[in-house]
Design brief:
By secondary structure, this protein is an alpha/beta fold. The protein is about 20% helix and about 25% strand. It has one domain: 4-Layer Sandwich (Purple Acid Phosphatase, chain A, domain 2).
Length: about 270
């Protein structure tokens, strides 16, 4: 998979890579010296093309030991970029400074109350120590003042799912869906679910949703789900952005492009 990711970076001339969390199984890392940094990142993604910026969010498994260590690793790595548990990054389209894309990376585990006391004691304590109200206020403020052409929120937990947690995403819906719609977010990028999925806006939503969480595990799709595309397959997504549309592709572990769609800009 790492080899195919490297090839895709070359083929698409990608500027950066996004990781949607659960970066280290099963319980995150203990410190910036944890051996998992070498075993699961540095010694895996060795293709020359992957030595670009990696923008990262935390997943629930990353809360199992020391989530702050993944933030701190940003200070010693040339490519691992997680300056805080939630942050924003702004990129230009075709080097046009008036035509930008805003990426808003959030820490979704503290937004899910199911982690409060129902998982391991350490995960629960780490989640409880996070200030979820402060994070949501930050997200509202950042989106409200945004002048970006495209607004994209990156999270670990999806708002909708056609997979293992089909019908079980209400906590994320309650936490962020109103904010996404109020400030006309264009795209939500998520992981958590171990499949590939692309959703057009549902009901009165403003945003597309993309799930890419099948880098090392795949789980079945619910037969009841109604989505634009969903597949239980090892793979990852590529996203191309221009002024008026997104080009979404899913690539499987063998390097095959298994799905392509163009998503026009909906929020003018």
């Amino acid at each position: 998979m790492a080899y195919q990711l490297g090839n895709a970076v070359v083929g698409t001339n990608a500027d950066f890579i996004i990781s949607t969390g659960d970066n280290f199984y099963p319980v995150g890392v203990q410190s910036v010296q944890d051996p998992s940094w070498q075993k699961s990142f540095e010694d895996v993604y060795t293709h020359h093309s992957t030595y670009i910026d990696w923008y990262v969010v935390l997943g629930n498994h990353d809360y199992g030991t020391n989530p702050q260590a993944e933030v701190d690793y940003s200070k010693i790595s040339a490519r691992w970029k997680m300056p805080s548990r939630y942050y924003s990054v702004h990129k230009t389209i075709d080097n046009d400074t008036s035509n930008t894309v805003g990426f808003y990376f959030i820490d979704s585990s503290p937004l899910n109350k199911s982690y409060y006391g129902k998982t391991s004691e350490l995960i629960s304590q780490n989640v409880l120590n996070a200030d979820s109200a402060k994070q949501l206020n930050w997200l509202r403020s950042e989106l409200k003042k945004s002048k970006d052409k495209w607004k994209i929120v990156v999270t670990h937990h999806p708002v909708y799912s056609a997979g293992k947690r089909y019908g079980k995403t209400k906590e994320m819906e309650d936490a962020v869906k109103e904010i996404l719609n109020q400030y006309k977010v264009d795209l939500l990028i998520a992981g958590h679910e171990h499949h590939l999925e692309f959703d057009k806006p549902k009901n009165k939503d403003t945003f597309y949703q993309l799930i890419s969480g099948a880098g090392s595990e795949k789980t079945m799709i619910s037969p009841n789900a109604k989505v634009q595309y969903a597949k239980s397959e090892y793979g990852f997504a590529t996203i191309g952005i221009d002024t008026n549309s997104l080009l979404i592709q899913f690539i499987d572990w063998q390097g095959n492009v298994i799905y392509t769609t163009e998503a026009p800009k909906l929020n003018k």
